Amino acid sequence: MSDIKGKKILMVVAPDKFRDEELFDTKRVIESFGGTVEVASLTLYPAKGMKGGSVTPDLKLQDVHVDDYDAVVFVGGSGAQVYFDNQYALNLAKKAYEKGKVLGAICIAPCILANAGLLEGKDATVWFGSEFVSLLKSKGANYTGEAVEVDGNIVTANGPMSAKDFGKVIVTLLSKSE
To answer: What average pLDDT does this structure show over 57-65?
Structure first.
């Protein structure tokens, strides 16, 4: 892995019940390689993690300009379900994909990518709850069950225990992109 100074990464969290490790551990890994991380959510009020952590978003999801970022990462946790059918989240994922950005999702957040139509025919993983696996498969994803899965510029991970490796894969993909 190499230095990713100058790369900007947007991490999208739910306003409530995001998974702390998936934000903070992933963010730490990215920043340790020189990346700059901004956080978006539905509001600018402090977002609350499932384990008691808190983060004040830098911007509202509806104010995101995808061209400002090299990667867009959706953080999981039970609160991420708020984005499964959210047009701002689905459109952000689609735009990031269409523009060749690195696109990441961890825990249940790969369901956002699936609902955006981005995982059809792609290898992907998700939190192992049967409803989430079923959703990915129903949208045409090749569910692999791996901890971290990469298909092109899309990286998915299965939960908090994979957060650091997820961050490292994002760094690797960013170091390859111009």
So the answer is: 97
